Amino acid sequence: MLHYAEKLTRTPWDMTEADLIPLRETGWDDRAILDINQTTAYYAYVNRVADGLGVILDEYAKGE
Q1: What are the extents of the domains in the chain?
Q2: On the chain, which terminus has fewer CB atoms closer than 10 Å, C or N?
């Protein structure tokens, strides 16, 4: 699942149906795969919106 999410985040243009095979082989059903996909895509979207607007994280959110 983490390999799938990482590839979707870093190189979404390289995703193919073949990327779903390892997920299905380890027991993820289509609903779970959809949830993984949507959660990953949502966080990518939110981070790009924040970065594009120059949002600065407060000290707590940066872990300092």
Answers
A1: 2-52
A2: C
Alpha-carbon span 43 to 38, nearest angstrom: 9
CATH code for the structural domain at 2-52:
1.20.1290.10
Q: Which amino acid is at 29?
A: D
Task: Say which residue, 26 or 60, is predicted with more confidence.
Answer: 26
62 vs 60: CA distance, rounded Å: 5
Q: For residues 53 and 61, what is the distance between their CA atoms, to the nearest angstrom?
A: 17
Could you report the per-residue pLDDT of 9-48, keeping only the tens digit for each? 999 999 999 999 999 999 999 999 999 999 999 999 999 9
